[in-house]
Amino acid sequence: MNRIILLVDDDIFQLRLFEKLLTSNGYNCKIALSVDEAESILQSETPDLIVSDYEMPGKDGFEFRRRLLEQDAFKNIPFLFLTSINDKENVQQGLDLKAIDYIAKNTPPSHILSKIDNLLQAVREHYERSLSEIKGIAERLNLRNIPKNAPVLKNFQIDYFNQSFQNQPGGDFIDFIQVNDRYTFIILGDVMGKKWGAWFFSFSFLSYIRSAIRLCVFDENYSLSQILNKLNRVVHADELLSDIFSTLGIVLLDDETGSVKYAGAGDLPVLKFEEHSEELHYFKSDGILLGFSEFGDYSEMDIEIKEGEELYMISDGMIDFEINGEKKSDINLFKEKLFNFKKNKETTLTIKNRLFDKHASQVDDCSIIIIKKV
């Protein structure tokens, strides 16, 4: 994925020179002639680096940097000052504002490119070390929103796959809760939000989901609608989760009778490929996002599945794609692709791999759970 650099300078000629240099070397540049234009771009783009001139009419580069430092969403974006003034006072003022470095406008292009390449590489290495440390801590604390293995059942085969966006923790979560030899709950959810924030809250949702299921099962209550309604009321009452919502799909497998029940909250439909008729059916829940309202009025349904047939639970990243920098969603496109795979007798593993071929350019976390009746 091309790294994005935001260039800010009131000199359009200078901007175009920098833009040509960087784009010809694989960077994606956004240009702004003023601080106001730059802030407008930041409402829809989060660049990997900001390069801004010191001197500009109206709000100058120093004020721009100070404004960014006051906002959590922007304060940690690496920042370089661009200037034709090479005096120590201005350089020090920029460094005091936590700018990583500065570039003089008369610097040779090869030096500018090397400096930006090296800076972004250093930032990336630092990020990866930090990510590795946090993941290590989460593992030691047994904090995991994607399980290591699926349960082994007599009448069902479960396969799943998760690919986070840009290898960063995200809001998708999966869980398998095998309460006894007969019943297994399959969970797929997606916390609204981006990256670390969604990842953090996914553990809160998972904790509530696990507790709600265990408490209801303790009372011999296996009703998915009742579990969801109780869970939703608890989540809605939690001040920590105020304005944090999640989709949730729950499938209950009865490994004794081979029956399947399903309920959902704001999730995508569960898909089923019918072997004998070669048709792809979908089952859509009518429940609203988890935590959105105190009363969700959730319902459940039975899904008839015969030997050899498969159910597919998916997160919205599976149907998302990007066209001309704009995010699009099309579940019908996904259904058509899945239908063709099944019609051509592709194996479960091949289908899983083929579906994720396109996700080299994914725009969100992607998760799929495949449940096959055996």
Overview in brief:
This protein has 9 helices and 17 strands. With 374 residues, the chain is α+β, with helices and mostly antiparallel strands.
Distance between the termini: 40 Å
Please report the number of helical segments: 9
Structural domain tally: 2
Number of strand elements: 17
CATH C-level of the largest domain: Alpha Beta
The stretches of 5 or more residues where confidence is low (pLDDT under 50) are: none
In terms of DSSP E residues, the strand content is 25-35%
- What integer value in Å does the Rg equal? 25 Å
Strand order of the largest sheet: 2-1-3-4-5
Q: Quote the average pLDDT.
A: 86
Architecture (CATH level 2) name of the largest domain: 4-Layer Sandwich
**What coarse outline follows from CA principal-axis ratios?**
elongated
CATH superfamily of the largest domain: PPM-type phosphatase domain
Q: What structural class do you assign from the helix and strand content?
A: alpha+beta
Order of helices and strands: EHEHEHEHEHEEEHHEEEEEEEEHHE
Largest sheet: 5 strands, parallel
State the helicity in percent bands: 25-40%
CATH fold naming of the largest domain:
Phosphatase 2c, domain 1
